[in-house]
Predict the structure.
Amino acid sequence: MLALIAEVPYDLATSGKPFDFGSQNPVFGLFIAFAMLAAMKWVAQRYQGAMLVISDIVLVVVAVLWDLLLRVGLRQHLMSLGAVTLGFVLIFWLMRSRENTMMFTAGLFGAVMMIAPGVGVAFVHYYNGKLGYKHSWTKWMFYAFYPVILLICAAVA
């Protein structure tokens, strides 16, 4: 839902047009990653062995193609932020039981993608499994923050 709400502000901020299909906002990358993980969980409940591995590979390829064909986060023509998001999600998902390997791999992947990886990996390392906010309305404030900031950027540009 956030991806749909933020699309017009994203287009206004990045291209100056209210509707521009040249690139979709990076939040769509999170939705695609979520859909891929949900499908992988569904497949894991039904299949084992080689069929599970083949299905997971097909799902990853479909998710990458979905990111690339929709041009998720590709406005600056540097890299597909949707594919990068998918890469991080896969690293965190597949290596969740090996925290040190996950942190090193995520840091290396972030460095290769020209992202400051140390900051995000440190947050993941020190996450204790509890939400950091006390009020339920705080979540909705964070959801509203992204489109509002995009609208401010569009107004300034």
The CA atoms of residues 115 and 138 lie 27 Å apart.
